[in-house]
Amino acid sequence: MRIADIARGDTPAELVIKNARIANIFTNEYELSDVAVYSGKIAGIGKYDGDVVYDAEGRVLIPGMIDGHVHIEDTMMTPGAFAEIAALHGTSAVMADPHEISNALGMSGLQYMFRASQDLPVDVFYGAPSCVPASDYESAYEELDMTAIHSMFMKEYTWHLAEMMNYPAVINGDASVWGKILAAGDVPLTGHAPNVTGYALNAYLSAGISSDHECNELDEAREKLKRGMWIMIREGASFPNLRTLLPLIRENVLNASRCMIVSDDITARYLLEQGHMDVKMRIMLEEGINPFVALRMVTLSPAEYFRLSDRGIIAPSKLADFAILDSDVIDEKFTVNDVFKNGRQIVRDKEVFSPYEQEHIAPAIKTRITKIPSVEDIRVKAEGKIINAIGVTKGTVLTKTLELEAKIENGYAVSDSEHNIAKIVVLERHRNTGRFAVGFVHGLGIHSGAVGSSVAHDAHNFVVAGYDDESIITALHELADMGGGLVVSNGKNVTEKFALPIGGLMSYLKPEEVSRELTIMEDAAVRTGILIPHPFMVLSFLCLSVIPELRITDKGYIDIMKGGIQKVFVR
Amino acid sequence: MRIADIARGDTPAELVIKNARIANIFTNEYELSDVAVYSGKIAGIGKYDGDVVYDAEGRVLIPGMIDGHVHIEDTMMTPGAFAEIAALHGTSAVMADPHEISNALGMSGLQYMFRASQDLPVDVFYGAPSCVPASDYESAYEELDMTAIHSMFMKEYTWHLAEMMNYPAVINGDASVWGKILAAGDVPLTGHAPNVTGYALNAYLSAGISSDHECNELDEAREKLKRGMWIMIREGASFPNLRTLLPLIRENVLNASRCMIVSDDITARYLLEQGHMDVKMRIMLEEGINPFVALRMVTLSPAEYFRLSDRGIIAPSKLADFAILDSDVIDEKFTVNDVFKNGRQIVRDKEVFSPYEQEHIAPAIKTRITKIPSVEDIRVKAEGKIINAIGVTKGTVLTKTLELEAKIENGYAVSDSEHNIAKIVVLERHRNTGRFAVGFVHGLGIHSGAVGSSVAHDAHNFVVAGYDDESIITALHELADMGGGLVVSNGKNVTEKFALPIGGLMSYLKPEEVSRELTIMEDAAVRTGILIPHPFMVLSFLCLSVIPELRITDKGYIDIMKGGIQKVFVR
Question: For residue A567, how far is the Cα from the chain centroid?
């Protein structure tokens, strides 16, 4: 066995990393040593000769980092473009939930993602999207039921069940949802259970779900940890929970073996400007977490939870996936300089060797949307004085159900810039049913025009929030014309637009172009008065029926805690 | 789903444990609560009603304990008898390596163990015995090669590879041994690599082996942990490493997530008089280890290493395997009072409800041994003045190669009680080849008579250590007549004997009877002058060719470090 010959030092390695300061999470020490590589794996650690030598010059070497939960679609980039940026920041593997594309394009969307994720600089492991649609209150392209889940495992597209978001159905023992969980078998069954505690949590866990990434508060995370769940501490672009949840580790460092840091939702701009798992490391280091403990939560802990026995540490037989920092200790700068994947250098001096070239084409969107409501259709007749409104708060994916006084004009409830209330419309777009719903949202800051998107979790119908009805209708028409994308409108004019041809979710553009387009769109959105960061991401989550409290889909207002469709007027 | 109905509190549970102080390893706290049970699983933790109520009266409830490595055969009890005693002490699962019976009876022995381990009060998970025989220097009943290993996995007898003891072959890249490892696939590949460090350890690990239970010294354990191995800290009947290795945990408590405590070899008497995993807990508590950290290493850590996602903690969906202590805190007494397995009470007030009844019969030993050497045959002609002798040290399975001055009488080297040297003979017993080897052993204390056994790791041929040749030959004849067992002889007389009809390794007797018989045998052994505790266990390990330094098999002296057969006379 050649790898054993190399490990013993009797045969030169294919590649030797010389003079690396290997960060060892078991000893909490750096080990100045060489790493011998053969056939994409680590053969040994010690003093070695090799056919190719890379001199680390005493800089820190860490295992390739692992993101335990991310939705690639939400970066609006293809898997290849995403992987290029993620690799640049030292990521070697991600556990991706493809439920966005699965909502938009069904099983064919999942298959596209799988195809487009082969041979990338980051290993992309897909979970079986467990909730397509997320609930009965959402209208997806097609339902992926327990037989669909079963076939994903049989075809080996997946080795874990992606976030089981329909927690009310799990808690209530709904057979169609339990069947999905059991169809997955003895694999990591990942969860999504915001605010679920006490007896409801017991019921949720009784199905075997073993992790959660929706803890916004420390006490919630403490309870879930206590009940045996692995905690995925989310640090996304717009929902940063890391600083809030770090006391879990400070209270008991052993909890680092049951916690990992995940992204969930990040944008192209976030990736380009801030980074990926390195961002999480920097935050933990700023917060004074022991560097080796922090490192464990982005390397070994996710590898262990997902049973990836071939990675997560620097040791013989493990994949030669590692990153070299530009410093000789792990400190708050935490800058990845060079990256190796499967024993090949793919990043040098913060630049990728071979930028990703698009090879795979997604299935086309087959439905053209022609049934678009008119200005008259989306008027809200004043049936009372107090309306329900979706309450948006910066920095959390949770919303509130607010009861607010309606602004009434000519017998219709309308937007109210003085009280930060805008109108919001969702239009079904997968079957051209023409079904739509109208509601109100508080806290976005819109005082003129409208912002619209075909990225609207999770069913990804068209969502438009706007001040006046004309701007809203203009945006809906533009979304239909583009076949999906982002739009900002003002009256009859389209201010800016960005087409997303892959299921109305993603672009074929390169990362910098995606980021630039999104920046243009966000700047245009600011001109409507929106003040909240990542306005399109925030907008997109207002449709996600499985997160408390009030949401809106094409079927109307939804409050998952109250368990059904809610009226616009309270009284 | 009924379990969800129960978890929510909407339906009474089948069983409720009331007022338990649940030891929670994530919070390091006791939680005074009820545990609801349905269909052998935990449904919820909180306040519950149930059809059957057990009042824990505020006593501590812990998860059923897990032994990560044990050889059941070495207790000389059947799996059923072993499980009865282990359950009494709070054990719910063991990872058993059936390599003793596999050496003695081949694949049919393994199948017997598997058959005899169904529906026991302890779940017995067998590993695929990776080294039958342990090395080319041992003569087993049959060789279990890579195709045999492959079929064990295909037939689902096993989910992990049992200790890969042939570390020289792994390190040297021997294809027949690497093939066994690869045939196992992506399962926990458990190791056995005493004194293997540095480049040799790299080579051993390059095959993917991920744990070790042979660390006798702290530095060795530190290096293996650093290289990514899970450390099985052994606390067996005669090889206690726990106190030595506990600094691993004191240095970095996070290491508790990579360490577990295991038995390896224990006797019936040890089980009856001292206990099983509870012994390990008591030692850790005496040593001042945090009780919750200690508990983790006998519950969650082995469950995680062996990917038993259904156990190891008290949480919804996990097996209702737990033990109730007789105290309201985990303290140094650590006494298990009541035990539940799959939600059924099997131990009450330290007594098992239904003692185990033997149901399964092992395959008969098919070879009758008739070729037995004579007194003349085992004389050692004096070919020099200095002999190699096996150096035995109390408390370690390791031996030394000692070069000692021979006592010469009438031209033959003989035993020398003044210098604590006895003669040792091994006779092949699986094929009646008549092959035998003679050597010397230092440190047993024998000054008259002989002790013999068919338990002689790992090939389990007949081994006899004795002072005079006549006693040795008497013992060999008795072993042949019994078809295997233990014997103490003096001259022409058999002092005591204990037949082991199951492969020459185990008895069908009940635990107390096995223990009594063994005690009689050990007392008889003391009358030969043996001073070392567990004399038959120590004797049995003198044949194990894969542990340094000097050993003896039917093929002669073996020193695995020197890599071959050694001569009796040095010069």
Answer: 31
